[in-house]
Amino acid sequence: MNGMRRVFAAGLVAALGLTGLSACGGETAQEENPTSITIWHYEEDNGAQGQAWARAMEIFEEQTGVKVNFEKRSFEQIRQNASQILNSDEAPDVMEYNKGNATAGLLASQGLLSNLNDYVDEYGWDQKITGSLAATGRYDELGVMGSGDWYGITNYGEDVMMYYNEDMFREYGIAIPTTFDELEGAMQQFVDAGVTPLSEGVAEYPLQHLWWQLALMKGDDDFLNAYEMYDGDVDWQGEAATFATQTIKDWVDKGYISRNSTGLKAEDCGQNFMNGTYPMFFSGTWWFGRFQSDIADMAWSAAVFPGAEETRVPGSSGNIWVIPENSTKKDLAAQFIDITLSEEVQDLMGNAGGLPIAADPDRITDEKTKALITSFNGVVERDGLGFYPDWPTSTFYDELNSSLQELVNGTTDVDGCLRMLEEYYTTGVETSGYRQ
């Protein structure tokens, strides 16, 4: 598959008044004494990242005297147009971008992102970003994450947890589960009382994240490395994939998951949990801050999926800061990235309901957020982040959803679903050129 490598040089723009080289030895000329820097991201102003990064921009201007030109771009704008933008003189100096092989890895392999190795050494970023958190910032020459050079830097994390409506558990006299057997027992008790336990949606990511959590509980590191890093062959009939798929089928048959969930999206699931329709919702920490602000009259809590306390869980670093190769202000861009990892900005993010990677839980004032950060730190310390199931190819997100929809609505069985997933996965990896 060597001919499939997506390696081509970015078009570089030479401009008047530009001299010198970047600190990382890049070919793009660097502007002398710049007076401004352009930053793009797609976080909401009132979100944890948006608040923290706004403060980082203020600190940057205070420290450097350089003006920040901030432009908010939507996730879809950047996702759909990144290659064209970064291969032009319209590129920002630093921007937030999605991590993974089909996104940051692709741009890195195309030569559109700056190699950050020297900046990592200069600022010591690899002392804060370690283990699974580091994987999403490093890519090899094929654009496969987990090794090679640094092209992205994260400053927050995320994982997937079980959210509990404590009021519903008390109403029905059911204990919040702490083991997998207790989870299935609690779900059966809810079904016996006429309540569907899990808020699920198969049209978007929620069910595929549950499927992946179940697979990670049975899969070892060899399974994970084969699936995510193409290091070996994925055994689609092995214990991990079979257990996950069979369990989803069993839970649908038992009424733990509604067959009507096939058309529901993530927003539907979150709203159904918030309005008290379902007692449990398995989804990411990105819901945490919203639940804190939007749920007024319901007692709720969150914890690692029952039975997964010693295994991997879906999750990774958050999205990453990248410096386009065409930037003429790379040193300033790196200085801004370093500020987002500072104690002040990290603590602000944590107190706003985010999941900073370098905050001290003792400096977080909200008890729920402190517990969230402590839980995430524990996952990171045991190297327990298992990434996400759709990352291996650019089309696998939709293919996972469609295969699981067929499983839930009964148009295929466990074997048929596994065969579909294997075919989609194998075809996508082969055509992508990720394997030599």
TrEMBL record:
Pfam families: SBP_bac_1. Residues 1-25 form the signal peptide. Keywords: Signal. This is Extracellular solute-binding protein.
